[in-house]
Amino acid sequence: MAMRIEDYALLSDCHTAALVGRNGSIDWLCLPRYDSSSTFGALLGTSDSGRWLLAPVGEATLTRRSYLGHTFVLWSTWTTPTGEVEVTEFMGQGNRRADVVRRVRGIRGTVTMGQELRVRFGYASALPWIRQVREGDDPRLIAVAGPDSIVLRGPRLTASDHAHTGEFTVSAGETVDIVLTWYPSHRDAPEPMDVDAALESTTAWWENWASTVDYSGPHYDRVLRSLLILRALTHEDTGGIVAAATTSLPEEFGGTRNWDYRFVWLRDASLTLEVLLDHGFADEALNWRDWLLRAIAGDPGDVQIMYGLSGERYLPEREITTLPGYENSLPVRVGNAAVSQYQADVIGEVMVALQKARDMGVTEDEYSWGLQRSLLTFIQQNWERKDQGIWEIRGPERHFTHSRAMIWAALDSGIRAVQHHGANGPVDEWIALRDTLRDEIDAHGIDPEHGGFVQYYGATGTDASLLTLPQVGFCAYDDPRMLATVAYLERTLMRDGLLLRYDTTDGVDGLPPGEHPFLACSFWLVEQYAHTGRVDEANALMDRLCSFASEVGLLSEEYDSGLGRQAGNTPQALSHLALVRAADALARVAAEDTPGESLAELMR
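-> structure tokens emitted (604 positions)
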């Protein structure tokens, strides 16, 4: 059985990611990309779904677990009655190899370490052919099934009941390296890795990236780790930013709200781009814009809400019956049917992010503005269409207020590009349509009784996504309509001091009811509080939300306050980028309250 979600640490090479449990078991690893099928899938099943366990044999205590500085090199210290060892784990960065390295170093005494390797390619559908090869000074274990192969170099293992197990001892001052490498089965196994060199280069790569972060405000460690996580979820070659490293971790334990988040949502990637721009990462902005140009090239009418890491369009949703689900939460899904939805807000998030890039001096190239004009033309042709909204409602399409406001934001971004940056376009048409949308929202998107924004036209209930309206400039944070919306959110969607996305019991999403508070929404509330004078409440909520992070700083999608545990896919880009935004808002308030000290000075 898998561990609690917060008991897993992330290893990343910016191509894929491994989740390592506090028990020393790698229970999730898809090779060679985030969206590849799993090689180790015990996270969504049992040990027989695939895992790689490395831990002391017998009685042992994990006394320390942390990342090495500002990296994804994981340090774990184990103490046993006979001694103490340190395990260093990482995925090599920058060498275009798919390696997982596990180094065991003796600190004192002698410790017996045990391994259990269960390789299950293809979401545990393929039991590989495994052989041990002993050639000169390169003994290795090779596992092959279909297109996939792994080679494991380290202490010898013995076959037993579809697993390979073994033990070895480490004394003080000794080091044992174990390296697992994926490669296509039609090729020869890669040469052995120089572990010392890979550890040094990987550590330097992450530290160099982190050294350029432009921030020194409140919650510095959480902000820096969140920015690192966003980088870890960004594919090194393509620039695509996945929403999370996992699939099918449940929003409701034992429930059916289990989705695959290992793809690039235009919305989440755009929001990620904004926070990276705010903290000094112009190169990432250019890489993502280039990804966007490739992904949605052609007819803007064919734009999708999400794509594969390289811009793949075909992402059919299917159920995987070979994995029994996290804590029996079924179905396990691969792919995502939301790819075929129309979500009208997405172009708004894209246009807002690209406008921010312009404002911060990122140079427009000959193709990018043409693409944006095409997107605005698409909006002009489709602005009256109903949609399925930011939360990917699987019920009837509606005029969601958030979506309508994001169409407004897309037009507003285009207008600003013409008026402030010299771009060309039918600005008078865009202004007229922008104003029409504002009048429409004022007429149909506000409840006459409580005075706040509603989830969709004709509804009386509200939606936490409406907290983003001030973020894109649709209204001020202290606009009476926003204050009324916040008050209504607090009355109807607050659970144990945290925000739900919307009311899942009213049937709007076409799914069985039940989910936990959505962390990004509560971070948005921190931002709202901070900008409207509720600073003490903002700080208290921020402190509480940050306390939900794992010991290595990871946040998933939701939080079950009743059980005191994380829920949903992990690490969730939207949760981490919302954390950064909330911290930035608190930094701005602190700067305003500190005479003579600018925001830039405070954040640096």
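The chain is about 30% helix and 20% strand.
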